[in-house]
Design brief:
Bound molecules: adenosine-5'-diphosphate, magnesium ion
Radius of gyration: 22 Å
Strand content: 15-25%
Low-confidence stretches: none
Helix content: 40-55%
Strand order of the largest sheet: 6-7-8-3-9-10
Number of helices: 13
Distance between the termini: 36 Å
Order of helices and strands: EEEHEEHHHHEHHHHEHEHEEHH
Oligomer: single chain
Mean pLDDT: 91
Largest sheet: 6 strands, mixed
Shape: elongated
Length: about 325
Protein backbone atom coordinates (compact mmCIF):
# COMPACT_ATOMS: atom_id res chain seq x y z
CA UNK A 1 0.00 0.00 0.00
CA UNK A 2 1.26 3.46 -0.77
CA UNK A 3 2.21 5.73 2.08
CA UNK A 4 -0.11 8.62 2.97
CA UNK A 5 1.60 11.94 3.36
CA UNK A 6 -1.62 13.86 3.87
CA UNK A 7 -4.94 12.44 4.98
CA UNK A 8 -7.95 14.70 5.35
CA UNK A 9 -10.89 13.10 7.15
CA UNK A 10 -14.44 14.50 7.41
CA UNK A 11 -13.20 18.05 7.18
CA UNK A 12 -15.91 20.64 7.70
CA UNK A 13 -15.48 24.41 7.91
CA UNK A 14 -18.57 26.40 8.76
CA UNK A 15 -18.54 30.21 8.92
CA UNK A 16 -21.70 31.23 10.75
CA UNK A 17 -24.46 29.69 8.65
CA UNK A 18 -22.23 29.00 5.63
CA UNK A 19 -20.71 25.55 5.26
CA UNK A 20 -17.67 26.17 3.03
CA UNK A 21 -16.13 22.71 3.33
CA UNK A 22 -18.52 19.86 4.02
CA UNK A 23 -17.39 16.43 5.23
CA UNK A 24 -14.39 16.33 2.92
CA UNK A 25 -12.10 13.29 2.94
CA UNK A 26 -9.07 12.89 0.70
CA UNK A 27 -5.53 11.61 0.76
CA UNK A 28 -2.27 12.39 -0.96
CA UNK A 29 0.36 9.67 -1.15
CA UNK A 30 4.10 9.97 -0.98
CA UNK A 31 5.58 11.34 -4.21
CA UNK A 32 2.21 12.05 -5.81
CA UNK A 33 1.23 15.19 -7.69
CA UNK A 34 -2.46 15.66 -6.86
CA UNK A 35 -4.80 18.42 -7.97
CA UNK A 36 -7.82 19.89 -6.20
CA UNK A 37 -10.23 21.51 -8.63
CA UNK A 38 -13.73 22.94 -8.50
CA UNK A 39 -15.69 26.09 -9.31
CA UNK A 40 -14.97 29.42 -7.64
CA UNK A 41 -16.14 29.40 -4.05
CA UNK A 42 -16.15 25.58 -3.89
CA UNK A 43 -14.03 25.65 -0.73
CA UNK A 44 -10.59 24.77 -2.13
CA UNK A 45 -8.61 27.56 -0.48
CA UNK A 46 -10.56 27.06 2.73
CA UNK A 47 -9.49 23.39 2.76
CA UNK A 48 -5.84 24.45 2.35
CA UNK A 49 -6.30 26.98 5.14
CA UNK A 50 -7.48 24.21 7.45
CA UNK A 51 -4.45 22.06 6.60
CA UNK A 52 -2.00 24.90 7.20
CA UNK A 53 -3.33 26.21 10.51
CA UNK A 54 -4.79 29.41 9.05
CA UNK A 55 -8.27 28.22 10.07
CA UNK A 56 -9.22 25.80 12.78
CA UNK A 57 -11.84 23.59 11.10
CA UNK A 58 -15.25 23.20 12.68
CA UNK A 59 -14.99 19.43 12.46
CA UNK A 60 -12.57 16.84 11.17
CA UNK A 61 -9.14 15.40 11.47
CA UNK A 62 -6.00 15.80 9.37
CA UNK A 63 -2.97 13.52 9.38
CA UNK A 64 0.47 14.34 8.07
CA UNK A 65 2.99 11.48 7.75
CA UNK A 66 0.79 9.30 9.93
CA UNK A 67 0.42 11.80 12.80
CA UNK A 68 -2.71 13.74 13.64
CA UNK A 69 -1.86 17.42 13.09
CA UNK A 70 -5.38 18.90 13.21
CA UNK A 71 -8.43 17.65 15.11
CA UNK A 72 -11.62 19.41 16.10
CA UNK A 73 -15.36 19.00 16.63
CA UNK A 74 -18.22 21.53 16.81
CA UNK A 75 -18.08 23.32 20.14
CA UNK A 76 -19.92 26.03 22.06
CA UNK A 77 -22.43 27.94 19.99
CA UNK A 78 -21.30 26.15 16.83
CA UNK A 79 -22.35 22.82 18.35
CA UNK A 80 -25.95 24.11 18.23
CA UNK A 81 -25.89 25.67 14.79
CA UNK A 82 -23.72 23.02 13.14
CA UNK A 83 -25.03 22.06 9.68
CA UNK A 84 -22.41 19.50 8.69
CA UNK A 85 -22.38 15.78 9.31
CA UNK A 86 -20.88 13.58 12.03
CA UNK A 87 -20.95 16.23 14.76
CA UNK A 88 -19.89 13.79 17.46
CA UNK A 89 -17.26 11.82 15.55
CA UNK A 90 -14.32 13.51 17.30
CA UNK A 91 -15.89 13.55 20.76
CA UNK A 92 -16.30 11.13 23.63
CA UNK A 93 -20.02 11.01 22.78
CA UNK A 94 -19.47 9.18 19.49
CA UNK A 95 -21.33 5.89 19.28
CA UNK A 96 -21.04 5.29 15.56
CA UNK A 97 -24.50 6.60 14.66
CA UNK A 98 -23.65 8.78 11.68
CA UNK A 99 -27.03 9.12 10.09
CA UNK A 100 -29.82 10.36 12.37
CA UNK A 101 -32.22 10.65 9.43
CA UNK A 102 -31.84 6.96 8.60
CA UNK A 103 -32.59 6.16 12.23
CA UNK A 104 -35.72 8.33 12.20
CA UNK A 105 -36.87 6.60 9.02
CA UNK A 106 -36.46 3.25 10.74
CA UNK A 107 -38.46 4.42 13.77
CA UNK A 108 -41.30 5.44 11.44
CA UNK A 109 -41.44 1.95 9.89
CA UNK A 110 -44.92 0.54 10.60
CA UNK A 111 -44.14 -3.18 10.63
CA UNK A 112 -42.71 -3.98 14.09
CA UNK A 113 -40.71 -7.00 13.03
CA UNK A 114 -39.23 -5.19 10.05
CA UNK A 115 -38.44 -2.21 12.30
CA UNK A 116 -36.54 -4.41 14.76
CA UNK A 117 -34.62 -5.99 11.89
CA UNK A 118 -33.62 -2.62 10.41
CA UNK A 119 -32.71 -1.33 13.85
CA UNK A 120 -30.44 -4.31 14.53
CA UNK A 121 -28.73 -3.75 11.20
CA UNK A 122 -28.33 -0.04 11.94
CA UNK A 123 -26.77 -0.82 15.33
CA UNK A 124 -24.37 -3.33 13.80
CA UNK A 125 -23.23 -0.76 11.25
CA UNK A 126 -22.83 1.86 13.98
CA UNK A 127 -20.66 -0.54 15.99
CA UNK A 128 -18.53 -1.18 12.92
CA UNK A 129 -18.09 2.58 12.36
CA UNK A 130 -17.14 3.03 15.98
CA UNK A 131 -14.52 0.28 15.80
CA UNK A 132 -13.14 1.70 12.58
CA UNK A 133 -12.88 5.18 14.17
CA UNK A 134 -10.93 3.63 17.04
CA UNK A 135 -8.55 1.94 14.62
CA UNK A 136 -7.87 5.11 12.63
CA UNK A 137 -7.76 7.76 15.31
CA UNK A 138 -5.53 7.41 18.37
CA UNK A 139 -7.67 10.06 20.08
CA UNK A 140 -11.00 8.39 19.23
CA UNK A 141 -13.68 8.86 21.89
CA UNK A 142 -11.91 11.86 23.38
CA UNK A 143 -12.68 15.54 22.90
CA UNK A 144 -9.06 16.28 22.08
CA UNK A 145 -8.57 19.39 19.95
CA UNK A 146 -5.36 19.81 17.96
CA UNK A 147 -4.92 23.26 16.42
CA UNK A 148 -1.37 24.11 15.35
CA UNK A 149 -0.26 27.57 14.27
CA UNK A 150 0.86 28.13 10.66
CA UNK A 151 4.47 28.35 11.94
CA UNK A 152 4.20 24.95 13.53
CA UNK A 153 2.82 23.50 10.28
CA UNK A 154 5.81 24.93 8.41
CA UNK A 155 8.17 23.35 10.90
CA UNK A 156 6.48 19.98 10.51
CA UNK A 157 7.31 20.10 6.78
CA UNK A 158 4.30 21.54 4.96
CA UNK A 159 4.86 24.64 2.83
CA UNK A 160 2.40 26.55 0.71
CA UNK A 161 1.95 29.39 -1.70
CA UNK A 162 -1.10 31.63 -1.70
CA UNK A 163 -3.74 32.42 -4.28
CA UNK A 164 -3.04 36.08 -3.60
CA UNK A 165 0.73 36.30 -3.44
CA UNK A 166 2.00 36.94 0.07
CA UNK A 167 5.56 38.16 0.23
CA UNK A 168 7.35 40.63 2.47
CA UNK A 169 6.96 43.15 -0.31
CA UNK A 170 9.28 45.83 1.10
CA UNK A 171 12.11 43.39 1.80
CA UNK A 172 14.62 42.24 -0.79
CA UNK A 173 14.13 39.10 -2.85
CA UNK A 174 17.09 37.56 -1.04
CA UNK A 175 15.75 38.34 2.44
CA UNK A 176 12.34 36.89 1.61
CA UNK A 177 13.95 33.51 1.05
CA UNK A 178 16.49 33.82 3.85
CA UNK A 179 13.73 34.51 6.40
CA UNK A 180 11.96 31.34 5.30
CA UNK A 181 15.21 29.43 5.88
CA UNK A 182 15.31 30.81 9.41
CA UNK A 183 11.71 29.79 10.01
CA UNK A 184 12.60 26.18 9.31
CA UNK A 185 15.74 26.38 11.44
CA UNK A 186 13.80 27.67 14.42
CA UNK A 187 12.60 24.16 15.21
CA UNK A 188 16.14 23.53 16.36
CA UNK A 189 16.33 24.56 20.03
CA UNK A 190 19.88 25.85 19.70
CA UNK A 191 19.22 28.18 16.82
CA UNK A 192 16.11 29.44 18.61
CA UNK A 193 17.81 30.31 21.85
CA UNK A 194 21.39 31.05 20.80
CA UNK A 195 22.45 33.09 17.86
CA UNK A 196 23.15 31.02 14.82
CA UNK A 197 26.79 30.34 14.48
CA UNK A 198 28.55 31.84 11.55
CA UNK A 199 28.91 28.62 9.64
CA UNK A 200 25.19 27.93 9.90
CA UNK A 201 24.39 31.45 8.75
CA UNK A 202 26.72 31.09 5.78
CA UNK A 203 25.15 27.79 4.83
CA UNK A 204 21.70 29.38 4.85
CA UNK A 205 22.89 32.24 2.68
CA UNK A 206 24.40 29.82 0.18
CA UNK A 207 21.24 27.75 0.07
CA UNK A 208 19.18 30.90 -0.39
CA UNK A 209 21.35 31.88 -3.36
CA UNK A 210 21.01 28.38 -4.83
CA UNK A 211 17.23 28.56 -4.61
CA UNK A 212 17.20 31.97 -6.29
CA UNK A 213 19.42 30.65 -9.08
CA UNK A 214 17.14 27.68 -9.57
CA UNK A 215 14.20 30.07 -10.03
CA UNK A 216 16.26 32.29 -12.30
CA UNK A 217 15.89 35.07 -9.74
CA UNK A 218 19.54 35.49 -8.71
CA UNK A 219 19.98 38.70 -10.68
CA UNK A 220 17.04 40.24 -8.80
CA UNK A 221 18.33 39.31 -5.37
CA UNK A 222 18.69 42.89 -4.12
CA UNK A 223 15.47 44.17 -5.64
CA UNK A 224 12.51 44.90 -3.40
CA UNK A 225 10.15 41.92 -3.71
CA UNK A 226 7.10 44.10 -4.32
CA UNK A 227 8.72 45.69 -7.37
CA UNK A 228 9.05 42.39 -9.27
CA UNK A 229 6.65 41.61 -12.11
CA UNK A 230 3.82 39.31 -11.14
CA UNK A 231 5.24 36.14 -12.73
CA UNK A 232 8.54 36.56 -10.89
CA UNK A 233 6.76 37.15 -7.59
CA UNK A 234 5.04 33.82 -8.10
CA UNK A 235 8.41 32.15 -8.61
CA UNK A 236 9.80 33.90 -5.55
CA UNK A 237 6.92 32.53 -3.53
CA UNK A 238 7.83 29.01 -4.64
CA UNK A 239 11.50 29.61 -3.77
CA UNK A 240 10.41 30.80 -0.35
CA UNK A 241 8.23 27.73 0.17
CA UNK A 242 11.13 25.45 -0.81
CA UNK A 243 13.43 27.25 1.61
CA UNK A 244 11.49 25.78 4.51
CA UNK A 245 12.50 22.30 3.29
CA UNK A 246 8.99 20.91 3.03
CA UNK A 247 7.99 17.33 2.38
CA UNK A 248 4.58 18.43 1.22
CA UNK A 249 4.10 21.47 -1.00
CA UNK A 250 0.66 23.05 -1.33
CA UNK A 251 0.19 25.36 -4.29
CA UNK A 252 -2.91 27.56 -4.49
CA UNK A 253 -3.50 28.49 -8.14
CA UNK A 254 0.19 28.86 -9.03
CA UNK A 255 -0.63 29.54 -12.70
CA UNK A 256 -3.16 32.29 -12.00
CA UNK A 257 -2.63 35.09 -14.49
CA UNK A 258 -0.19 33.11 -16.63
CA UNK A 259 -0.46 32.61 -20.38
CA UNK A 260 -0.41 29.08 -21.92
CA UNK A 261 3.34 29.18 -22.53
CA UNK A 262 4.12 30.24 -18.95
CA UNK A 263 1.63 27.72 -17.61
CA UNK A 264 3.34 24.90 -19.52
CA UNK A 265 6.75 25.98 -18.19
CA UNK A 266 5.38 26.16 -14.67
CA UNK A 267 4.03 22.59 -14.95
CA UNK A 268 7.41 21.32 -16.08
CA UNK A 269 9.10 23.28 -13.33
CA UNK A 270 6.85 21.84 -10.61
CA UNK A 271 7.59 18.31 -11.81
CA UNK A 272 11.32 19.12 -11.79
CA UNK A 273 11.42 20.42 -8.23
CA UNK A 274 9.14 17.62 -7.11
CA UNK A 275 11.72 15.06 -8.27
CA UNK A 276 14.73 17.03 -7.10
CA UNK A 277 13.46 17.64 -3.56
CA UNK A 278 11.46 14.40 -3.30
CA UNK A 279 8.30 16.36 -2.67
CA UNK A 280 4.67 15.45 -2.58
CA UNK A 281 2.62 18.15 -4.29
CA UNK A 282 -1.02 19.09 -3.75
CA UNK A 283 -2.19 21.86 -6.06
CA UNK A 284 -5.34 23.92 -6.52
CA UNK A 285 -5.54 24.99 -10.14
CA UNK A 286 -7.96 26.30 -12.72
CA UNK A 287 -5.83 25.70 -15.81
CA UNK A 288 -7.21 22.34 -16.87
CA UNK A 289 -4.39 21.74 -19.36
CA UNK A 290 -1.87 21.99 -16.52
CA UNK A 291 -3.87 19.67 -14.27
CA UNK A 292 -4.63 17.10 -16.97
CA UNK A 293 -1.08 16.97 -18.30
CA UNK A 294 0.95 16.82 -15.10
CA UNK A 295 -1.16 15.50 -12.21
CA UNK A 296 -1.38 11.86 -11.14
CA UNK A 297 -4.78 12.22 -9.55
CA UNK A 298 -7.52 14.80 -9.27
CA UNK A 299 -10.11 15.58 -6.60
CA UNK A 300 -13.10 17.64 -7.66
CA UNK A 301 -15.19 19.52 -5.11
CA UNK A 302 -18.34 21.57 -5.45
CA UNK A 303 -20.14 23.38 -2.62
CA UNK A 304 -17.50 22.06 -0.22
CA UNK A 305 -18.23 18.42 -1.05
CA UNK A 306 -16.24 15.85 -2.96
CA UNK A 307 -17.99 15.06 -6.22
CA UNK A 308 -15.36 12.98 -8.01
CA UNK A 309 -11.86 11.58 -7.61
CA UNK A 310 -9.60 9.76 -10.03
CA UNK A 311 -7.08 9.87 -12.85
CA UNK A 312 -7.19 12.82 -15.27
CA UNK A 313 -8.90 10.61 -17.87
CA UNK A 314 -11.56 9.40 -15.44
CA UNK A 315 -12.28 12.89 -14.13
CA UNK A 316 -12.47 14.41 -17.60
CA UNK A 317 -15.12 11.85 -18.55
CA UNK A 318 -17.20 12.17 -15.37
CA UNK A 319 -20.66 13.60 -16.00
CA UNK A 320 -20.89 15.31 -12.59
CA UNK A 321 -17.61 17.08 -13.23
CA UNK A 322 -18.64 18.23 -16.67
CA UNK A 323 -21.93 19.54 -15.29
CA UNK A 324 -20.51 21.23 -12.22
CA UNK A 325 -17.33 22.52 -13.65
CA UNK A 326 -15.80 21.77 -17.01
CA UNK A 327 -18.85 22.80 -18.97
CA UNK A 328 -19.00 26.17 -17.25
CA UNK A 329 -15.45 27.35 -16.91
CA UNK A 330 -13.68 26.35 -20.10
N1 LIG B 1 -13.00 33.77 6.59
C1 LIG B 1 -14.17 33.51 5.98
N2 LIG B 1 -15.33 33.97 6.48
C2 LIG B 1 -16.51 33.69 5.88
N3 LIG B 1 -16.63 32.99 4.75
C3 LIG B 1 -15.51 32.52 4.19
C4 LIG B 1 -14.21 32.75 4.76
N4 LIG B 1 -13.28 32.15 3.97
C5 LIG B 1 -13.96 31.59 2.97
N5 LIG B 1 -15.28 31.80 3.09
C6 LIG B 1 -16.33 31.34 2.16
O1 LIG B 1 -16.08 29.99 1.88
C7 LIG B 1 -16.47 29.69 0.54
C8 LIG B 1 -15.35 29.01 -0.17
O2 LIG B 1 -14.30 29.93 -0.42
P1 LIG B 1 -12.90 29.49 -0.95
O3 LIG B 1 -12.38 28.39 -0.12
O4 LIG B 1 -12.05 30.71 -1.04
O5 LIG B 1 -13.26 28.96 -2.40
P2 LIG B 1 -12.31 28.53 -3.61
O6 LIG B 1 -10.88 28.64 -3.17
O7 LIG B 1 -12.71 27.14 -3.97
O8 LIG B 1 -12.63 29.49 -4.74
C9 LIG B 1 -16.91 31.00 -0.09
O9 LIG B 1 -18.31 31.05 -0.04
C10 LIG B 1 -16.28 32.03 0.82
O10 LIG B 1 -17.03 33.22 0.82
MG1 LIG C 1 -9.35 29.80 -3.82
Amino acid sequence: MSENVLRIENLTMQFGGVVSVNGLSMEVNKGEFVALIGPNGAGKTTAFNCVTGVYQPTNGRIEFMGETIVRNHPQGRMARQYMGERATLYTSAYRGEDDPEALEAIEREGDGERRAQLRAQFDAEARERLESAKRRDPDALTNRVIAPTPDRITQLGIARTFQNIRLFSSLSVFDNVLIAKHMRARQNVFSATLRLNRREERRMREETMALLEEQDLARFKDEVAGSLPYGLQRRLEIARALATEPRLLLLDEPAAGMNPQETQELGEFIVKIKEKYELTVFMIEHHMDLVMQFCDRIYVIDFGKLICEGSPEAVRADRRVIDAYLGVVE
